[in-house]
Amino acid sequence: FPGAGGGNDIQWCFSQVKGAVDDDVAEADIISTVEFNHSGELLATGDKGGRVVIFQQEQENKTQSHSRGEYNVYSTFQSHEPEFDYLKSLEIEEKINKIRWLPQKNAAQFLLSTNDKTIKLWKISERDKRPEGYNLKEEDGRYRDPTTVTTLRVPVFRPMDLMVEASPRRIFANAHTYHINSISINSDYETYLSADDLRINLWHLEITDRSFNIVDIKPANMEELTEVITAAEFHPNSCNTFVYSSSKGTIRLCDMRASALCDRHSKLFEEPEDPSNRSFFSEIISSISDVKFSHSGRYMMTRDYLSVKIWDLNMENRPVETYQVHEYLRSKLCSLYENDCIFDKFECCWNGSDRQVLIVMTGSYNNFFRMFDRNTKRDITLEASRENNKPRTVLKPRKVCASGKRKKDEISVDSLDFNKKILHTAWHPKENIIAVATTNNLYIFQDKMN
Amino acid sequence: MLGKGGKRKFDEHEDGLEGKVVSPTDGPSKVSYTLQRQTIFNISLMKLYNHRPLTEPSLQKTVLINNMLRRIQEELKQEGSLRPVFVTASQPADSLGDTFREAQPAFSHLSSQPLLPPDLVSTTTPLESCLTPASLLEDDTFCTSPTVQHDGPTKAPPPALQPIKDSFSSALDEIEELCPAPTSAEAVAAETADDDSKAQPSESTIQKPEGFLESRTAEPKLMDSLPSNFEITTSTGFLTDLTLDDILFADIDTSMYDFDPCTSATGAASKMAPVSADELLKTLAPYSSQPVAPNQPFKMDLTELDHIMEVLVGS
């Protein structure tokens, strides 16, 4: 990227940042998921307080060719509320774990949002006109005295200020004993799956009172439990195929046509352990925190604690590419275990559908995020920070000094702030615009045009 | 994890622990390896048992930590030593140590008997000292024999089940530890094999967090007690043959079972004081075909349970 030749190298510039400026982070404001819709016009975030905030991209100003439209708040609503499970005497968090958009079919937009236990289908619709001129009601809604009505008129629609309304259309509840970690909409756009630690359920978007269990890895005796489901996703093109990843670093591909209960996988993807890297923490760092199919469906990407791996669906015994996100943490695993950072669940994403570009992105600590170019095999580390970020200024690459003498502008591993983690990133489906979530801020970067 | 925002400082001490993992057979680095392993073991225990969240703990995290502990235990077993030195200062554990002996002499059978003062070795049922209604509600659950470990469990144990309240879960855990499920033969074997080298429960008690009243003492016992963490999330029936509706204390005052684990410094037994053990035994005796004796499982049906509940609540 930096300084290298090649017209394809993207130069990322700061565009916008959303969220509070204070250092004191309100717990409810912690961003827990980020997702572009299918056109990229809308960008949704979910937070720990159960709220969903949707940003809308301004229509491109044809005269201003230097930048793409900015994202502004379009709708904010409370998706989930905290609940209390009286039987277990435990709270059910309202934190939004995932948001997934449905493709747009009419004027309204639909998305699925989920917390640990309940999935909801939300309809977001615009209202920019309202009927006026009722016969029996005043404009403010009060009823008119019928005796004062002397003429009749037909109410007409008149323009009003744009109002964006979100309403819950379906609530899919009571199907998960364990915590939901993933939802994924099928390519048939009629069904979707939801996965918790031990089970995966299949739903029809129209039907809320039943779901079908398609994967169940709960052992008869819970004492024997050693592995949980960490993520699941439908294949982008093949509506009977899905994958799920585990805490032991395996990915299973299942075909729903094979049987009703897909406990037996069609394929099992697992890389043999590298004996030279064996440690107490081998299992924990192999736990996969995210799995994403490529747009073509030929590849899938997994994220474990230290690396990103690209798998060819035709090859089960090892990934075709492995990228080290922050290998310098390998010698710090004990501390990271102690402070729980080793359990952080980083997500990963592919670039948009531009076929020329093949880049994957993921987050790290110290508000750093990483991109790996699969074509050039080059990688870059960037930082999401309000400092030194002026619009249309190209971001300066960062470098972490693992050991030895620290060069100027490098940051030593010991100075990394492990409280500043980037877990959620998203890439615009069509353009080189990315959304990067720090703890409570959302950064939008875009490539430098012309 | 959030809020402080302070930069982490590199702890010099940990440098030695965290380097490349060395084989345990290397000479001088064996100490380092053992120390590292020990530290990780302690950290893992603290993570599991010091955590009392308002929300359910992450099952994935619990599973990974459990696996870590099991792996280390396996290693320790293979190396022949079964009692690691607990590096972390466990003052609460020490203070609880005596009371644990007192509260749960049921565990006396787990360690070599001679190690315990004779007066604490209970020859009668565990009911005497760790009474809870949950134990009575269990369908043919527990054995009264102190030697049950070696005779094999004499019940068909239900899986570790969903507790209604903390007191229930602790009672269940005690019961489980008396009669582990057949599938944890590993744990049973471990105990049989290592009885001699085992520490007294009280010596090796770990830091006792609030909320967990059972004694998680001898390591192999962890094998049994670990899974109870999973059970927070299970929704399987609390009782195998009985439904909750049969027993639900809808009209029963359960205030005596509501106790604040934080303040319970003297273990479960003290809180169960309202019903005396003798009284209960007398109540139970007529219902079993034989007097309560070792090696006899308890079997009761619903009417008996109702009566017992009346006794417990009525007093």
TrEMBL record, chain A:
Provide a GO CC annotation, any one: protein phosphatase type 2A complex
Where does the chain cross the membrane?
A: none
Q: Which SMART domains match?
A: WD40 (SM00320)
Report the Gene3D superfamilies cross-referenced here: YVTN repeat-like/Quinoprotein amine dehydrogenase
Q: What are the alphabetically sorted keywords of the record?
A: Repeat, WD repeat
Under InterPro entries, the record lists:
PP2A_PR55 (IPR000009), PP2A_PR55_CS (IPR018067), WD40/YVTN_repeat-like_dom_sf (IPR015943), WD40_repeat_dom_sf (IPR036322), WD40_rpt (IPR001680)
Which molecular-function annotation in GO is an example for this chain?
A: protein phosphatase regulator activity
Kindly give the PROSITE patterns that the UniProt entry links to this protein: PR55_1, PR55_2
Family assignment?
A: Belongs to the phosphatase 2A regulatory subunit B family.
Which PANTHER family is this protein grouped with?
A: PROTEIN PHOSPHATASE PP2A REGULATORY SUBUNIT B (PTHR11871)
State the protein's name.
Serine/threonine-protein phosphatase 2A 55 kDa regulatory subunit B
Q: Which gene encodes it?
A: Ppp2r2a
Automatic annotation (TrEMBL), chain B:
Domain SERTA stretches: 33-80
Q: One cellular component GO annotation, for this chain's record? A: nucleus
Residue stretches of biased makeup (Basic and acidic residues): 8-18
Region of interest: Disordered:
1-29, 184-214
Q: Taxonomically, which superkingdom?
A: Eukaryota
A Pfam family the protein falls into = SERTA
What name has this protein been given in UniProt?
Answer: SRTD2 protein
Q: Which organism is it from?
A: Upupa epops
